[in-house]
Amino acid sequence: MVPSDVSPPFAHKESSGELVARIRAGDQRALEELFVELYAPLLTYLGNHFGAPDVAEDAIQAVFIEIWNRHSTFDPAVSVRAYCFAAARNHMHKLHRTTERAHHREAAATYSARAPMTPDRVLDDQELRVTLDAAIAALPERAREVFYLVREDGLTYAEAARVLGVSINTVKTQLARVSGVLRAVLGSTLSLLILSR
Questions:
Q1: Cα–Cα dist 98/183, whole Å
Q2: What is the pLDDT of residues 104-147, one digit of tens each?
Q3: Its pTM surpasses 0.70
Q4: Three-class SS string for the chain?
Q5: All residues at 6 or more sequence positions from 17 whose CB lies less than 8 Å from its CB, including other chains
Q6: pLDDT for the residue 11
Q7: Start-end ranges of CATH 1.10.10.10 in the chain?
Q8: Which of 27, 31, 128, 184 could pair covalently with 22 via S-S, beta carbons 3.0-4.6 A apart?
Q9: What is the dihedral of CA 126, 149, 112, 101, to 10 degrees?
Q10: pLDDT tens, 54-91?
Q11: How far is CA 82 from CA 37, 125, 179, 190, in A?
């Protein structure tokens, strides 16, 4: 659960490096600040990518417990944000490999049963989200991960590349593939709106 009495970190322009230094020094408040800052984006990312919000919460807590258990030596080689996303992602992969494959097959079957949208078709927000979710679920795993990290969670190409352990060019290539799929499914106008937000 997110502590309600902790103000968002970085509000006073503290760098992530300073926050990591405070955590390394044993400052539990710094860990709480980091938790509050990243909890919602991590939960959104894990929920979008893996489903199972209960398990996602457990994974996030496990990441922060791990950080605290080794706080005196905590020194991520990448940004602390990228480190937390990667650690949470890896934890969820360990827990959900089989479940994700079954979910992917189910989502792909749902998507293939839907008729493609035409530009003249007017959709309400909920129907658009269902169509978008189905199109994204039908993407290859790597392309889906890149989409969620960059477009949904706001990571830079470089941060997404570090989280996934790939090059920046791979991130760009995957986003180009996502763009092509979304254009085919949603039409060029709607896909541009989704990809540019």
A1: 30
A2: 556 545 544 454 544 444 445 567 777 777 888 888 888 888 88
A3: no
A4: CCCCCCCCCCCCCCCHHHHHHHHHCCCHHHHHHHHHHHHHHHHHHHHHHHCCHHHHHHHHHHHHHHHHHCHHHCCCCCCHHHHHHHHHHHHHHHHHHHHHHHHHHHHHHHHHHCCCCCCCCCCCHHHHHHHHHHHHHCCCHHHHHHHHHHHHCCCCHHHHHHHHCCCHHHHHHHHHHHHHHHHHHHCHHHHHHHHHC
A5: none
A6: 42
A7: 123-197
A8: 27
A9: -120
A10: 888 888 998 999 999 988 888 887 788 888 998 898 88
A11: 13, 31, 24, 29
Pick the CATH number of 123-197 from 1.20.120.530, 3.90.650.10, 3.40.50.720, 1.10.10.10: 1.10.10.10
Residue type present at position 35: F
CATH architecture, domain 7-97:
Orthogonal Bundle (1.10)
Q: What does the alpha-carbon distance between residue 17 and residue 79 come to, in Å, rounded to a whole number? A: 8
Which pLDDT does position 10 carry in this prediction? 42
- Tokens of residue 152, six digits: 């949904």
